[in-house]
Write a structure and sequence with these properties.
The structure holds 2 protein chains of 2 kinds. Chain A is α/β, with parallel strands linked by helices. Chain A contains 12 helices and 15 strands. Chain A starts with a helix and ends in an 8-residue tail after the last helix. By secondary structure, chain B is an all-alpha fold. Classes of the chains: A alpha/beta, B mainly alpha.
Chain lengths: 344, 279
């Protein structure tokens, strides 16, 4: 008996890895078993009646503690994926898990620890913001009615809606509606937030506030899966990114890895690429690669003038020389063949 | 406080929230006003114009002046063909389709609210509304009737005279029976509500069904199918006003309503449990 208790206590100690989003002044209570991936899917597919494949065999891997930017143009399958993740629609094929537990089998146990905003906010128009949150809280069997008032108040406070709490939802502006949606996701301590376009419809000030809020939540250790069509949003607050294009997940990595693809490269146009490659390699430049009319390599810390001097010294007939750094958008356009709205 | 706590298995919080939503909604309050207007109109009209002769006007109308309790019965009889089914259809048609239409359904399911639990709570709220609506019509009728015509001994359909207490008891039995009948319509409404995202469409479909059922019931040539019609046994409530109570039709009526309830509740569950929620 004694050993059993000890073993359990030890497991409990190891569980500290995935902290929760806590309403103001809350202590971390019981954390679930830690997993490396907060969201994982395997061949997740949705084919709607009529044969249209909205999501095509995607393998999501959202590391615990990350802010994962789920990036893609409108209509690329992001929302359908999120609906599948939350068990709202049934995948045609494939499996997935949230917080290490397969869904939908363990939905009842996992979803209380997941806050979500799916395809925009939706509330009863003739109820006030407060009453709408109270209704959601009342439907949650894991919510303690004794603390409902405090939690609703804190959730509204967090998104700056305290003053509008008694106002009917129908009189809310688009931005206020969006905030109320986010506050609903914060009614309980969460380990995972699934936010579908959380800054949609917000003015620049609101957008900044929501991004700051997401960053703040992420800093407490909560994993955030944030879908967006705004590249700027990903660049600002995400640690990881998955790129959707026509139902396929065309890229998925940490932002740092992706940025590595945007490191400045030196491009040498020459008729003798072999010699040039040798020179660049001798200089210690990385990723030396041949191009159509020459060679290229990562410039790294090397001084471009030294590179030119070395090429000339090695008698490489240089026809052109340049250093270029593609930005992230170039990377994404390369992946999807389409541009992103980068205005956000 | 932590979400890791054991969930509350038997909590009436969601049901109470549901009832607040139904009874707090202006549309429904106005609807209750319409339901209440019928007994008032009946009572006032008779008080002004005098009793219609036997066989004239709706059932029980001719007895209204003999005892105010009959205003409640007359109102229930008058509202049974359309107003009461309409009220039940409005609430039940809105149950799932209304949430789907607003988009709130996806948030309820993501909380998570198990789909079966959602249907149970929604149907429980429909039942409570149905009983409330029936009792409300009867109560308004009784109150206005007693005010305008007074109480005293009531003559039952079988000719027996009973006191006010016994009369009230019979009226309560009628309310119970009609609630059971209308609850079956609530189950049909719940099922239709899982088929669409348009609550008005669901409501119209259910009201249409009630009207068509009554039309078919009135066509004598179709008598072989009459007993299968969902509205066929509704008017059997008159049997509760005989002495002794004639239970044959009442029992069959309750069985019919129970069968409809079970069938359509199951259909609603089968439809909703695996449905893709794309609203």
């Amino acid at each position: 008996m004694g050993t059993g208790v000890t073993a359990r206590a030890a497991t409990g100690a190891m569980r500290g890895r995935a902290p929760e989003v806590l309403p103001a002044g809350q202590a971390v209570a019981d954390s679930p078993p830690s997993t490396d991936l907060a969201v994982a899917s395997n061949g997740l597919t949705k084919r709607f009646r009529g044969g249209q494949v909205a999501v095509d065999r995607i393998d999501l891997a959202v590391p615990t503690g990350s802010v994962y930017g789920f990036l893609g143009p409108n209509g690329s399958g992001k929302t359908t994926t999120i609906r599948m993740l939350l068990g709202l629609i049934r995948p045609t094929a494939g499996t997935h898990s949230l917080l290490g537990r397969p869904i939908p089998a363990h939905a009842a146990e996992v979803l209380p620890r997941v806050g979500s905003l799916v395809e925009g906010p939706a509330f009863h128009p003739y109820l006030s913001g407060w009453d709408n949150l109270r209704r959601l809280d009342a439907a949650d069997r894991h919510a303690d009615p004794a603390t409902a008032k405090a939690r609703i108040g804190a959730a509204l406070e967090r998104v700056g809606l305290t003053a509008a709490a008694a106002k009917r939802y129908r009189h809310y502006s688009l931005g206020m509606r969006q905030r109320l949606g986010i506050s609903a996701a914060l009614l309980q301590p969460r380990q995972l937030l699934v936010l579908d376009e959380p800054t949609n419809g917000l003015d620049p000030q609101g957008t900044r506030e929501v991004r700051a809020l997401v960053a703040e939540l992420a800093a407490t250790g909560v994993t955030v899966l944030l879908s967006t069509h705004l590249l700027a949003e990903v660049e600002q607050i995400c640690s990881h990114v998955g790129v959707m294009h026509r139902g396929r997940l065309v890229a998925q990595s940490s932002l740092a890895e992706l940025r590595a693809g945007t490191a400045p490269r030196v491009h040498v146009r020459t008729a003798e690429p072999t010699t040039a490659e040798r020179t660049l390699t001798r200089l210690g430049l990385g990723e030396v690669a041949s191009e159509i009319d020459g060679v290229s390599a990562l410039i790294g810390a090397a001084d471009p003038t030294d590179v030119v001097a070395a090429l000339v010294y090695d008698a490489v007939p240089v026809r052109g020389f340049g250093v270029q750094a593609p930005d992230l958008e170039d990377v994404f356009v390369g992946l999807t063949g389409e541009g992103f709205d980068v205005s956000g | 406080m932590s979400v890791a706590e054991r969930p509350q298995i038997l909590s009436t919080r969601m049901l109470r929230s549901e009832l607040r939503l139904i009874f707090g909604r202006h549309r429904n309050i106005a609807g209750m006003g319409v339901l209440a207007s019928v007994p008032i109109i009946i009572a006032v009209a008779i008080a002004i114009a005098g009793t219609p002769g036997p066989g004239e006007g709706p059932t029980f109308l001719s007895q209204v002046t003999s005892n105010g309790l009959f205003v409640g019965l007359a109102a229930l009889g008058a509202e049974l063909p359309l107003f009461l089914p309409l009220a039940v259809a409005a609430i039940s048609g809105d149950a799932v389709a209304g949430e789907a239409n607003l988009g709130t359904l996806r948030y309820l399911l993501a909380i998570p609210v198990h789909r079966t639990r959602l249907l149970v709570v929604k149907y429980a709220a429909i039942l409570i509304f149905t009983v409330t609506a029936v009792l409300f019509v009867a109560a308004v009728g009784v109150v206005i009737g007693l005010i305008l015509f007074g109480g005293g001994p009531a003559t039952l359909l079988s000719g027996t005279q009973v006191g006010t207490a016994q009369g009230l008891w019979r009226l309560l039995l009628v309310c119970g029976y009609l609630s059971v009948c209308l609850a079956a319509f609530g189950a049909i409404g719940l099922f239709v509500s899982t088929l669409t995202e348009q609550p008005i469409g669901a409501t119209i479909a259910v009201v249409g069904l009630a009207v068509i059922s009554q039309i078919l019931d009135a066509i004598a040539a179709l008598s072989p199918i009459h007993r299968f019609l969902p509205t066929h046994y509704w008017l059997a409530f008159g049997d509760l006003l005989r002495d002794p109570i004639s239970t044959d039709l009442i029992t069959t009526g309750i069985l019919s309503a129970t069968a409809y309830t079970v069938i359509f509740w199951t259909a609603a569950w089968a439809r909703f449990a695996g449905k893709d929620v794309t609203s």
